[in-house]
Structures are given as structure tokens and as C-alpha cells.
Amino acid sequence: MGKVIVEMSISLDGFIARPDGRTDEVHAWYNMGDVEVKMPNNDLTFKVDPVSAEIVKESFQLGANVTGRHTFDDAEAWGGDDPMGIPSFIVTHEVPKEWTGKDSPFTFVTDGVASAVAQAKKAAGDKPVGVAGADIAQQCIQLGLLDEIQLHLAPVLLGEGIRLFDDLGKAPIELEQIKVVKAPHVTHLFFRVIK
Ligand SMILES: NC(=O)c1ccc[n+]([C@@H]2O[C@H](COP(=O)([O-])OP(=O)(O)OC[C@H]3O[C@@H](n4cnc5c(N)ncnc54)[C@H](OP(=O)(O)O)[C@@H]3O)[C@@H](O)[C@H]2O)c1
Q1: How far apart are CA 26 and CA 63, in angstroms?
Q2: Domain ranges, residue 154
Q3: The domain spanning residue 176 has which CATH number?
Q4: pLDDT per residue as tens digits for the range 133-158
Q5: CA of 70 to the centre of ligand 1 (A)
Q6: Which protein residues are within 6 Å of ligand 1, measured from CB?
């Protein structure tokens, strides 16, 4: 089965979004270059530097996504489909009525993160599973489900907002540094979780 990866843009002081959920500053690097990279399954096109373009394309290799309900709501369901066009599992306490039809591209999981990751792994086969949302990422860490952490470190101090590593449960958690890629407006950091 494929590995489980969290991949997010983050401020130097550890926030993935402002308190209101906006990600303008941490995601600014997606629009600061000349190389166009189109999302596989929607009209969004990034404009990044050549080094980051390769990193972004690599991130499209996932086989399934697990996302928290807050991220799903903030992204307004990505306009109606998973942005990568892959199986998409949304962890929530309450299934939104507007997405319950049999043609819904989303699977809502109400029995916890472990169940969502297990379903996503099955759907992804040998490909990696991506997890998104700080709350979901933290639960994956607490449950020992996370294999890799990929961070796009933005040169900004937000001061407040949604922290990626707020509640880790049992810490310290040891990481192995796999790769560091310096780009003009962002530094890409790759870690393996040592289990
Ligand atoms: N910087 C980046 O790269 C990046 C990437 C992704 C997201 N984001 C941002 O991150 C923010 C969201 O992160 P977040 O940590 O606040 O939220 P989240 O992880 O996206 O979602 C948390 C929500 O998921 C549901 N949930 C979590 N655990 C559950 C469980 N065990 N069982 C059932 N439901 C469960 C709950 O929603 P309900 O109770 O409502 O069901 C909970 O409030 C957004 O603002 C988004 O824009 C940033």
C-alpha cells in the first residue's frame, strides 16, 4: 500500500492559514513565477518558478485524498470535484446534504480519521494518500498513520492563525530529513516520520 503524506504551505512561525482560514501569504509562491502548472482536474493554473514547478508536478502523483471538513468548506468543495480528480474522502461529523447524491465525487467519512485513511489507501492502491487540514494531519500523527511531511516554507511570519503542529499527542516525534529544495520564493522541505 502507498504511503500517507501531508503536504502543505506553511509560514516560518508554523501557521498554514490566517485565523479566518485565508492562505494568501503561505500560498503566495504558487503565483510568483513564469512556469504555468495546471491542476489536473480544474481550471486553476499556478505560475511558479522552474524549481517549484517540478515539486508541484510531483505532488500530483497521489492516488487519493483525505481532507478535513473545514478545508473542504473553505475551498467551497473545490467547485464541485476533487482538484486532482482522484478519490476524495472528507472527514466530518455531519454529511452535507448537498453532496449526498449517488453521483457525488466525494465520500464523507463520519467514523474517524483512521477509517478515512484506510478507505483512501484501498482506493489509492500503490500510490500515496494525501492528507490535508491541520486537525486531520495532527490526528494522523497521533494515530501513527503519517509517513511523510512535505512543507512549502513561505518567507512570512503570520503571528496568529491555524497551526499545523498544535496537538501532536505523544511527542517528540523523530523525523528524517529526506530533501530540501531552495526556490526563489519558498523552501520545499521533505521529511520521513520515523516509526
Ligand atoms: N496552507 C496549506 O497548504 C493548507 C492546506 C489545506 C488546508 N489549509 C487550511 O487549513 C484550514 C483547515 O484546517 P483545520 O485544521 O482548521 O481543519 P480540517 O483539518 O480541514 O478539518 C477539521 C474538521 O474536520 C472534522 N473532523 C476532524 N476530525 C474528525 C473526526 N475524527 N471525526 C469526524 N469529523 C472530524 C470536523 O468538522 P465537522 O465537525 O464540521 O464535521 C473538524 O472541525 C483551512 O483554513 C484551510 O484553508 C491550508
Answers
A1: 25
A2: 4-193
A3: 3.40.430.10
A4: 999 999 999 999 999 999 999 999 99
A5: 4
A6: 8-9, 16-17, 21, 23, 26, 68-71, 74, 91-94, 110, 112-113, 132-136, 139, 162
